[in-house]
Structure formats: C-alpha cells, structure tokens
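Entry for the shared binder. Reason: the reviewer on the internal report wants the predicted structure included alongside the sequence.
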Amino acid sequence: MGLEQLVVDVDTLFNERALPTGLTPNRDLGFELWGDIADGVVSYAAGVFNGAGDARNSSLSDLEDNKEFAGRIFIRPFKKLALPALQGFGFGLGGSYGKPSAAAALPATTGGTLPGYATDGQQQFFAYNPTNKAVVVANGEHWRLSPQGYYYYGPFGLLGEYVISDQRVSRTVTAPLTSARLEHTGWEITGSWILTGEEAAYKGGVVPRQPFNPLEGRWGALQVVGRYAELDIDKGTFPLFADSTTSAHSAASWSAGLNWYLNRNVVVKTSFSHTTFGGGGGAGTTAPAIVTRQPENVLFTRVQLAF
C-alpha cells in the first residue's frame, strides 16, 4: 500500500527506504485482485491477507482467524494526452484494515529487541518499552491510510507520500492494565535528477544511454537524489506504552546521494543521512536510548548487481 514500499528493491533511489515506509506492511500472504483500466490511466489492487505489523513480513503460517483487508487505487489522469510534461503525473490512495491480536501485529523489531520503529541507519529510535516490566500487545483494530503521488518528466523525478498507522494496543502483566488507540504518522518527499539526461520513471530504474565502457569514452548514467522525511509517535503512547526517557516521540531525517548506473545490471549507490530526534536519550546502553542520545549520521555505499 505504500508508494515507496512498492518500488522494487533494485530500483530504490536510496540504500534504505524512508521513515514513513516503516508504518506500512512489507510482504504478506493472501488473495489479491489487481489490474489496469484505460491502459493504465487507473490502476487498482485489493485483497485479503493474513496481516502483518508495520515494517513486517508475514509469517509462513496463519496465527489467527482475523484477516486484514488492503487496497490501493492510483490514477495517472494525463497518461493518454499528447502532453509529455503531464504524462508522468500520478496520485493515489492506499489503505488497510484489520483486527489483529497476534504478537507479530506490532511493528518490527529492527534495530532493537522490542517492537518499534527504526532510523534510516536501521537503528531503533522508538520501542514499546514501558517501565515496570509491562508488556504491550496488539489488541483490536489496526487501520492504515496513505495518500501518495509522484511526478516524472525527462531526467526529473519527485515522489511524496503521507502515512497514518492507527492501532489499538493493550498494556499487560503490570498495572494499569489499560488499552488505547495510538495513531502514528509519517511523511516524505524525495527528488531526483539524472545528470546524464536519461528518462526518470517510477518503475524500471535508470537505463544508461551509454553503458560503461571507458575504452570508448562511455561512463554510464549519474543521478543525484535528495529526501526529507519525518515520523511522529502518538503523544498518548507515553508513558504507559513506552518510556519517554529512552524512546523518541519523533524523528526527522534529510538525505542526499549519488547513484552511478554503469549499465542496466550494475549500480553503485552512495548516500548520506542525518536524523535528529525529539525526546528520548536517557540512560541505557541499548536501543532506543543509546540511539536517541545524539543525532544519527550514516554513510551508505552499495555495489548492486542484478541479472
């Protein structure tokens, strides 16, 4: 359902996806209907799935009777018009709804040991970690909504989305044994420019006009990319469902990078991300306290081979 999440791994602009993608599910098992109308002017997808927590993949077995319903519609209103400057514009809406109660219905544990959310550097800045050994579980409705859009024209690309993840959780083991609906939100905007003039697109990646061959003076394609993203935790999460002295209540990240496409199968990606946090940073030697104590600076490099 997430716009950036649906970009295949080999074609992502950055080495890691942005903060709001952490509020969407990854892969899931289920039954789906999808298709195009008017040669792709309208695209749709809808299905019934086992259900997966934020940033999680579904397990191979079905753990409960409750199912998750998900759908997405995307419109490219000018695709068929003879106006190249508008053909690459599209917008849509994705969403999901379920009533999970399994442990895996909470967010992934990436970068830590408890369910929570991670930075661009894959370090956990928020966890469901209330004090006094209380345990937080998913217990009821979970819905997501993501308005989204993009624009591509020539070497220029722009992608943006907003994600809401609203979930009912319960505090167990230690009093007070209470429940709450928590609504976490995130957004991002990502821009790109291909310096060597190739066409930018949401799908298909960058295909160099002159594949790398220094003996013939061909050097592939170069692309610069930039991104800004935020993720905000519901204020009602603290202090009963998370410890405000260790978990941040927000994260904001800006990133910049350079991608070198030697040919269609070999890409070198380099990017830098700087993330700041609101809250957290208290005592502790593990995530999320140690992560939120100072801004995160991370330099990624990747040599990517695809055949």
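Summary line for the report: The radius of gyration is 21 Å.
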